Amino acid sequence: MSGRVVVSGPASWNRIVQVEHLPDPVPHMQFALGDHETVGGTSAGKALGLAALGRPVLLSTLIGSDADGERLRGILERVDGLDLDVVDGLRTERHLNLMTPLGERVSIYLSTPDDRSAPADARLTAAMQDAAAIVLDLSERSRRLIPDARAAGRPIWTDLHDYDGEAEFHRPFLDAADAVFLNADRLGGDPMPFLRRVVDEGARLAVCTLGAEGAVALSAARGVGSVTEHRVDAVPVDVLDANGAGDAFMSGVLHAMLDGAGVDAALEVGAQHAASVLVTRHLHPTLDDLVD
What we know:
The chain is of the alpha/beta class and 292 residues long. It has eight helices and 13 strands. The protein is 30% helix and 26% strand.
């Protein structure tokens, strides 16, 4: 087994527009505070975070052969420690993100790749079998990879983002995952009942990020049956852009636990890594020197 992590899921090319407040749902004019283009996508964020921590990573993603795709691929190929397994998605995923200084966001999908079933990828299958862990981010392609990921016998981590606890698309990811991450945006208050349910159904770790309040987690000891609660505070920083903080948090926790850290120590690493992303306008500080 290698120390490499396989990450499957979205990478995109994004235009970020900073606004004082999110637009009201009525016709009006609003001035932007600024805008820029950059790398996006939750899986790209996790891969960048892992590579920056010194963890070798293979990012398997859909990128089109259009101009934005060539630019996206060119940047990711220059990241030390990050290998790409690219499937031609015909079109590159592109977003227009409206962002407020408080981190509120509206994402408008300008284009999405062709995510139809592709022939089996022997290189990816072999990489999963040799991986230290497999991250399956929400996408149709990742969902199709679940049987192969399970057959590989490696730990599976997934990020459910703003899952409401009910949507059926997420169920296969929940059933397969050893570690589950999400935020509390749509859980309706206290996230602990949901985290308890996740652990009771077989996950060894369930983590909910709480923005400026840090994160809460439940862990289950294998073969013991006991469940432990963990909490970590957010690291205070002057926030420039909140994009990618959740991905950085998860990649920090994953990297630390693969290095043998306990849950509490790993959550601290995750919080520190998330803070490093909040002070850059890009998905990760690695991109500061790579994106024009």
